[in-house]
Design brief:
The structure holds 2 protein chains of 2 kinds. By secondary structure, chain A is of the alpha/beta class. Chain A folds into 2 domains: 176 residues, Rossmann fold (3-Layer(aba) Sandwich), CATH 3.40.50.300; 72 residues, no CATH class. Chain A is 34% helix and 23% strand. Chain A contains 8 helices and 10 strands. In chain A, helix 7 crosses helix 8. Chain A is globular and about 50 Å long. The mean pLDDT of chain A is 87. By secondary structure, chain B is mostly helical. Chain B contains 11 helices and no strands. The chains are: A alpha/beta, B mainly alpha. Chains A and B meet through strand 6 of A and helix 7, helix 8 and helix 11 of B.
Chain lengths: 263, 261
């Protein structure tokens, strides 16, 4: 049985300025297995981010069902981590305290944060080391480059050991070299945490590099027009992105996105 | 190093130039001292009347700080309310703007009818003049929290209280302190006006009495006292602001860099 299941999901919203009803997502069907790395790609404005908010329970569907772990999503799930294109770190907190933010909110950490202070600091330190930020815990966000801020944001999204990690174009604002480096970091984090990851991106190479399954969305109102399994061997390296098989997969996906735009 | 020294000296230099122009104008145009006293006569008045100036200055300072303190508390609460709830914004903001548009001096006679002449109308006026900047700034800080940050918080199951305490209030501090610097000077304006119109003590009252006796040097000495108190309070809040929210100046530079890339 699917861990995350969207069945016939519509999402309509009313624009505040015009009062017009717009359909952002229409008839979306997605099944995601536990521990799967899924990527959703599609033209901009196709409702990809809306899909994430539906899964996180930040929005309720106008029609259809969103189920996570067998039960319908009615309110914000507390078992998700989120990361965005903007690092959204709190500028008044150092990196350690930024990463610890979820522990101050999510149970059971919330009630034990005082006595577990030392232990939590160690966990932060370990996670920071995993993303290559050892020794940066006491720095302030503005002392870090964009790429380093994104690494810190990934740590914040994972510190409370969520079962679902939702990533909304987390690398889109970074330069190519930093971005490709962070693909490796994310793959490494996933192989060690084994949570379910849903990554939104419009970079096809990124999706192919990271995902087990890629869902392609149509232009607005968005629905899934194609699902591809990527069975390239892991761990994938930057070398493998030049492999003819890798290039073929990217090429094939590009073709489908082109079709999605026309329909 | 040389530039730094110049920056340090700049406010004193401009003050000296201002005093010089004032003095020259009196000499050049032959202005009588019951119209405009010289800086020296003003200083002499300060020395001669230091005791009443001190007691009344302290009275004005107390009145101002009480009105200002009420304004800060009420302004903060209203600002959080208006900034974090759309409904509260819609419901309260027009009323707040209307309230702020009323000339406060016109309300002093009403306060006198309600509370009698004395300190209470001055406190009320100081409060009325100074609470709006606090509301507006805190509300702006709360209303401009990045939507992604709110989503991160909500997806963790954060309550409204969590969001206010962990994000809203720390984020609003730079805005809050900036508003305090404006609010404290407005509070002085409010209390002194009320003392002039309806006071029986305070610097405003000193000015009223001195004016009716044509003791213009004392009026100016009183003005200097008000100005000095205003600068003093401003400096205190400026210092606190820098100690508490040093992160904000740097953080803004970073956001601009990211925005440009």
């Amino acid at each position: 049985m699917a861990f995350i299941e969207l069945a016939g999901v519509d999402l309509a919203y009313t624009a505040r300025s015009t009062g017009a009803n717009t359909l952002a997502v229409s008839g979306a069907n997605v099944d995601i297995a536990y521990g799967e790395f899924v990527s959703i790609v599609g033209p901009s404005g196709c409702g990809k981010s809306t899909l994430l908010k539906l899964i996180a329970g930040l929005m309720r569907p106008s029609r259809g069902n969103v189920r996570v772990d067998g039960s319908e999503v009615q309110r914000p799930l507390k078992t998700v981590g989120m990361a965005f294109q903007n690092a959204t770190l709190l500028p008044w907190r150092n990196i350690r305290d930024n990463v610890m933010l979820p522990l101050e909110i999510v149970e059971p950490y919330r009630s034990t944060q005082r006595q577990d202070r030392e232990k939590n600091h160690e966990r932060v330190e370990m996670l920071l080391a995993k993303v290559g930020l050892s020794g940066f815990a006491d720095r302030m966000p503005w002392e870090l480059s964009g790429g380093m801020q994104q690494r810190a944001q990934l740590c914040r999204a994972l510190i409370h050991e969520p079962s679902i990690l939702l990533l909304d174009e987390p690398f889109a604002a970074l330069d190519t070299f930093t971005r490709e480096e962070l693909w490796g970091v994310l793959q490494e984090l996933w192989s060690f945490r084994k949570c379910t990851i849903i990554l939104i991106t419009h970079e096809l190479r990124e999706a192919v590099f990271l995902a087990d399954t890629i869902h392609i969305m149509s232009a607005r109102p968005g629905h899934i027009i194609k699902t591809s399994k990527i069975d390239l061997p892991r761990p994938r390296t930057l070398e493998s992105t030049f492999d003819p098989k890798f290039v073929d997969v990217v090429h094939d996906l590009r073709h489908h996105i082109g079709k999605g735009k026309q329909s | 190093m040389k530039k730094e020294a110049l920056e340090r000296l700049a406010p004193w230099l401009t003050t000296a130039v201002f005093i010089l122009i004032w003095w020259l104008a009196i000499i050049v145009f032959g202005i009588k001292n019951y119209i405009l006293p010289t800086p020296l006569e003003t200083v002499q008045a300060l020395a001669k009347y230091w005791s009443p100036l001190l007691t009344n200055g302290m009275a004005t300072l107390a009145t101002t700080l009480i009105g200002f303190g009420i304004a800060v508390v009420i302004g903060m609460v209203l600002g959080i309310l208006v900034g974090s709830s759309r409904l509260a914004y819609k419901a309260l903001y027009p009323l707040l703007v209307a309230f702020n548009s009323v000339p406060k001096a016109a309300l002093i006679p009403i306060f006198v009818i309600w509370f009698g002449a004395g300190t209470l109308p001055a406190i009320m006026t100081a409060f009325m003049l100074s609470f709006f900047p606090v509301v507006a700034n805190v509300a702006t800080a709360f209303a401009t929290i990045e939507p992604e940050l709110l989503e991160v918080m909500r997806s963790l199951g954060a309550s409204q209280r969590d969001m206010t305490l962990k994000v809203g209030i720390p984020r609003s501090l730079p805005y809050f302190f900036a508003s305090l610097k404006i609010a404290i000077t407005l509070a002085f304006v409010g209390s002194v006006i009320a003392e002039i119109i309806a006071g029986n003590s305070g610097i405003g009252n000193v000015m009223l009495v001195a004016g009716s006796n044509f003791n213009v040097p004392l009026v100016f000495a009183a003005l200097v006292v008000v100005g000095a108190m205003g600068i003093g309070m401003y400096a205190i809040f400026d210092f606190i602001e820098r100690r508490m929210t040093g992160w904000s100046a740097r953080a803004e530079i970073t956001t601009q860099q990211i925005g440009g890339a």
